[in-house]
C-alpha cells in the first residue's frame, strides 16, 4: 500500500473512489463515462473560445493518470458506499472535505510470477556454470572448492606453502580451481620433465586483468605470454640472438664486469654504514640487460632509470592479485585495495611501454648503417626486413618488439638481482660458507684480481654456493603457469584442454626424494667426492622443457661474476641489534627477501 496526499484526484477507466486509511469515508467523484453521478458531463477546462489558457494542465493530468493506471489501481474498501460528490460552488471545484486515501497496487495474474521466474533463471545459469566447472572424469583429486570462487581464499599470504600442504595430502599431481578455471599442480621432477616436454602443455593463459585487450601491451604479445607459431618464431630468434650477442663474446663479459666494478665502488662509499643494496644492485643488473637490448647503459643514480626498475618491481609484486581479479572480476567494479593495485599496474604497463617505444625511436635514429651494432634491437630490425609472417601477419612488428623487450628487461632484471639479494641473506645466516668461498677465491685466483667467466672451473665451491642459493631461495616457487592446448593423458589422469598447469618448484626443491636434509643450506650437495660440480635431478631454477628460461646461460654468467666478485671484495655483516632470516620474504610470482640493510666491510 502507498499513502497518497490529500486532495489528489486520479481519473481511472472505472469509477474514481477515494477511501480514507481506515475505509470509513469514501468519495466517489465520477464514473468511467465522463459524467458525474448526476449525469452532468465533466468539463475540466471549459470549451470553445473561452478555453482555459492553461489547457496544458490536461496533458499533465493525463500523464499522471496513465502512469498510475499502468502500474497501480485504486479500489474501494469493502465497506465503502457510493455517495454524491460534495463541492462548493464557485470558479474552482475542490473537495469540500479532503480526505486521506489508500492506493493499492494493481494486481495482475502475471505480477506475482516475475520474481520467481527471475530467481529460477539465475539458478539455472549458476547451475550450468557450476556443472561446467566441476571436476571432469579422471581429473586429479584435490582440495574442495567454493563454487565459482574455487580455492582462492586458501591461497592468501604465501600460496606455495599451502600448495605444499596439499601436495602432501593429495600427491604429486592434484587438481584445484582458480574461480571456475581448472588448475593442475605438478610436484614431481620426472613427471614435470615429461609433461613440459610436450607441445600440448606449452600454452599460456591469455586472460589478464592487468594486460587486457585495451592495454597498450595486451596479453599474448612478447616472449613469455605468446604461444603457438608466434612464440616459436620469436623464441627461436631470441635464443639465436642472445647466443650470438652474449656467450663467447668478450664485450658481454666486459659489460657485466663494468657493472660489477660500479656496484663495488658504490658499496665502498658506504664506509661501513648500514646500507640497503637493492636499488643499486637492481640498476646494475638492469644495465646489463640495457646494454644487451638497447646497446647503452644508464647511470646508477639516474632517477628516471630508478623509476623504471621500480615500476617493474611493483608490477611483479602485484601480479598475484591478477589471479584474484580473474577469479572475482567484480572486485574491479568498486573501490577496494585489489582494484587500486590492478589499476596501478595498468598505469605502470603504459609507462613502461612508452619507455620501450622511446628507446626504439632513439635507436633507429642513431644506429644508421652500423651493421656491427651488438644489440637485440638492431638484430630485430634486421630480421624484420625478411618479412617473416605468422598466420598471415607480419611476425616482426613494433608491438611484438615492445613485448619482447619488456619481457627481456623485466625477467632479466628482477630474477638476477633478487637471487643476489638471497645470496646475501644466506651468507649472513651461514658465515662459515662465506668464509670458505672467500678462502677458495684467495687461494685459486687471488683477492686483488677481478674474477672473470674463465675462472668458473677453478671455483667449484663458489659455483655450488650459487646453486644452493637458487635451490633454497626458490625464486619463482610456482614457475610461470602453462596451459594445456589439448586434452592430455598423464599418469592415469586427464588434464582437459585449457587447464592451467602449475609447476610446484617450491616442493621439488625441498623434496627429500632428491635432497638429503632439504631444509639445510648445504652447498656440498652439488659437489661429488672429487669436488667436481654436480647437476642433480630435482634442480629446476630455470624451469624445464620447451618453455624453460631462454636467458639461462646469460643469467648463470651474471650470477657468477656478481656474487663471486662481491664476496671477493666484501665481508657481509649485520648492523648491531639487527636480525635477518630467509623465512622473512615477500611472496608473489617472484619470492624476494624482506628489505634489509647490511654493513659491507672491504677485504682490501
TrEMBL record:
SUPFAM superfamilies: Cytochrome P450
Protein keywords: Heme, Iron, Membrane, Metal-binding, Monooxygenase, Oxidoreductase, Transmembrane, Transmembrane helix
Binding site for heme: 549
Keyword Transmembrane helix: yes
One Gene Ontology CC term in the entry: cytoplasm
Membrane-crossing segments per the record: 110-131
GO terms, molecular function: heme binding; iron ion binding; oxidoreductase activity, acting on paired donors, with incorporation or reduction of molecular oxygen, reduced flavin or flavoprotein as one donor, and incorporation of one atom of oxygen; steroid hydroxylase activity
One GO BP annotation of this record: organic acid metabolic process
Cofactor(s) needed: heme
InterPro entries per record: Cyt_P450, Cyt_P450_CS, Cyt_P450_E_grp-I, Cyt_P450_sf, Cytochrome_P450_fam2
Pfam families in alphabetical order: p450
PANTHER family xrefs: CYTOCHROME P450 2U1, CYTOCHROME P450 508A4-RELATED
Family under the similarity heading: Belongs to the cytochrome P450 family.
Name this protein carries in UniProt: Cytochrome P450 2J6
Organism: Hypsibius exemplaris (Freshwater tardigrade)
Amino acid at each position: 500500500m502507498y499513502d497518497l496526499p490529500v486532495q489528489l484526484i486520479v481519473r481511472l477507466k472505472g469509477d474514481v473512489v477515494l477511501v480514507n486509511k481506515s475505509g470509513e469515508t469514501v468519495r466517489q467523484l465520477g464514473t468511467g463515462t465522463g459524467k458525474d453521478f448526476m449525469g452532468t458531463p465533466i468539463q475540466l477546462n471549459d470549451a470553445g473560445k473561452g478555453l482555459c489558457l492553461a489547457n496544458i494542465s490536461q496533458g499533465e493530468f493525463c500523464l499522471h493518470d496513465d502512469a498510475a493506471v499502468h502500474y497501480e489501481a485504486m479500489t474501494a474498501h469493502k465497506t465503502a458506499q457510493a455517495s454524491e460528490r460534495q463541492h462548493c460552488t464557485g470558479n474552482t471545484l475542490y473537495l469540500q472535505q479532503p480526505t486521506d486515501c489508500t492506493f493499492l497496487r494493481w494486481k495482475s495474474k502475471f505480477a506475482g510470477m516475475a520474481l520467481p521466474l527471475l530467481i529460477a533463471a539465475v539458478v539455472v545459469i549458476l547451475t550450468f556454470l557450476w556443472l561446467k566447472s566441476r571436476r571432469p572424469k579422471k581429473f586429479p583429486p584435490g582440495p574442495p572448492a567454493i563454487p565459482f570462487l574455487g580455492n582462492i581464499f586458501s591461497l592468501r599470504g604465501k600460496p606455495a606453502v599451502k600448495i605444499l600442504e596439499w601436495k602432501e595430502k593429495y600427491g604429486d599431481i592434484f587438481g584445484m580451481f582458480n574461480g571456475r578455471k581448472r588448475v593442475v599442480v605438478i610436484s614431481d621432477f620426472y613427471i614435470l620433465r615429461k609433461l613440459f616436454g610436450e607441445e600440448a602443455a606449452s600454452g599460456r593463459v591469455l586472460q589478464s586483468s592487468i594486460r587486457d585487450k585495451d592495454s597498450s601491451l595486451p596479453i599474448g604479445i612478447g616472449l613469455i605470454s605468446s604461444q603457438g607459431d608466434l612464440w616459436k618464431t620469436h623464441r627461436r630468434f631470441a635464443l639465436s640472438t642472445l647466443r650470438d650477442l652474449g656467450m663467447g663474446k668478450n664485450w658481454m663479459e666486459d659489460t657485466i664486469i663494468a657493472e660489477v666494478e660500479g656496484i663495488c665502488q658504490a658499496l665502498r662509499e658506504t664506509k661501513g654504514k648500514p646500507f640497503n643494496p637493492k636499488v643499486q644492485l637492481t640498476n646494475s643488473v638492469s644495465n646489463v640487460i640495457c646494454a644487451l637490448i638497447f646497446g647503452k647503459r644508464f647511470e646508477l643514480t639516474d632517477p628516471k632509470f630508478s623509476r623504471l626498475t621500480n615500476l617493474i618491481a611493483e608490477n611483479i609484486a602485484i601480479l598475484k592479485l591478477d589471479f584474484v581479479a580473474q577469479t572475482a572480476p567484480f572486485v574491479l567494479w568498486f573501490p577496494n585495495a585489489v582494484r587500486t593495485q590492478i589499476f596501478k599496474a595498468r598505469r605502470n604497463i603504459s609507462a613502461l611501454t612508452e619507455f620501450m617505444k622511446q628507446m626504439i625511436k632513439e635507436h633507429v635514429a642513431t644506429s644508421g648503417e652500423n651493421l656491427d651494432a651488438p644489440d637485440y634491437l638492431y638484430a630485430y630490425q634486421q630480421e624484420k626486413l625478411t618479412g617473416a609472417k605468422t598466420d598471415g601477419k607480419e611476425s616482426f612488428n613494433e608491438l611484438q618488439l615492445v613485448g619482447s623487450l619488456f619481457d627481456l628487461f623485466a625477467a632479466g632484471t628482477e630474477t638476477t638481482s633478487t637471487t643476489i639479494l638471497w645470496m646475501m641473506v644466506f651468507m649472513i645466516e651461514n658465515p662459515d660458507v662465506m668464509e670458505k668461498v672467500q678462502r677458495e677465491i684467495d687461494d685459486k685466483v687471488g683477492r686483488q684480481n677481478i674474477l672473470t667467466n674463465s675462472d668458473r672451473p677453478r671455483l667449484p665451491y663458489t659455483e655450488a654456493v650459487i646453486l644452493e642459493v637458487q635451490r633454497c631461495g626458490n625464486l619463482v616457487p610456482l614457475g610461470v603457469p602453462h596451459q594445456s592446448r589439448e586434452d592430455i593423458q598423464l599418469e592415469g589422469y586427464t588434464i582437459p584442454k585449457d587447464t592451467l598447469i602449475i609447476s610446484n618448484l617450491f616442493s621439488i626443491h625441498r623434496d627429500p626424494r632428491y635432497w638429503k636434509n632439504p631444509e639445510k643450506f648445504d652447498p656440498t650437495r652439488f659437489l661429488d667426492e672429487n669436488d667436481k660440480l654436480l647437476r642433480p635431478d630435482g634442480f629446476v631454477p630455470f624451469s624445464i622443457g620447451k618453455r624453460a628460461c631462454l636467458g639461462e646461460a646469460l643469467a648463470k654468467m651474471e650470477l657468477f661474476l656478481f656474487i663471486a666478485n662481491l664476496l671477493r671484495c666484501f665481508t657481509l655483516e649485520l648492523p648491531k641489534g639487527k636480525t635477518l632470516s630467509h623465512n622473512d620474504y615477500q611472496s608473489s610470482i617472484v619470492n624476494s627477501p624482506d628489505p634489509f640493510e647490511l654493513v659491507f666491510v672491504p677485504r682490501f
